[in-house]
């Protein structure tokens, strides 16, 4: 994960990462970050390329994350 992307995630609150060309591997890394994160409440991943595997990783992270209330995954080639 790039340092710029990591810095945006660490800010917390509402994080918009749409139209960034993020792929499934990056989504997996973001999902791992979300497992322990307690500051991000909204995450927008709209219009990337995270695919089914990236979406599955996000779903797994949500089992452990109690803070994220909104996850936007539209237009990501899921399913």
Compose a concise summary of this entry:
This protein has helices at residues 3-11, 24-36, 51-64, and strands at 13-16, 40-44, 70-72.
Describe the structure.
The chain is of the alpha/beta class and 79 residues long. The chain is 46% helix and 15% strand. The chain contains three helices and three strands. A three-stranded parallel sheet has the order 1-2-3, with helices on one face. The model has no long low-confidence stretch (mean pLDDT 95).
Q: Name the helix and strand elements from N-terminus to C-terminus, one letter apiece.
A: HEHEHE
Quaternary organisation of the protein chains: single chain
Characterize the overall form: globular
- Alpha-carbon distance between the two ends: 25 Å
Radius of gyration: 11 Å
What key attributes describe this structure?
alpha/beta; 3 helices; single chain; 79 residues
List the helices and strands and how they pair.
Elements: H1 3-11, E1 13-16, H2 24-36, E2 40-44, H3 51-64, E3 70-72
Parallel strand pairs: 1-2, 2-3
């Amino acid at each position: 994960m790039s340092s710029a992307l990591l810095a945006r995630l660490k800010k917390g609150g509402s994080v918009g990462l749409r139209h960034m060309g993020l792929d499934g591997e990056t989504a997996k890394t973001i999902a791992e970050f979300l497992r322990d994160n307690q500051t991000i409440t909204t995450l927008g991943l709209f219009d990337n390329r995270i695919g089914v595997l990236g979406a599955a990783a996000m779903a797994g992270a949500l089992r452990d994350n109690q803070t994220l209330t909104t996850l936007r995954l539209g237009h990501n080639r899921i399913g």
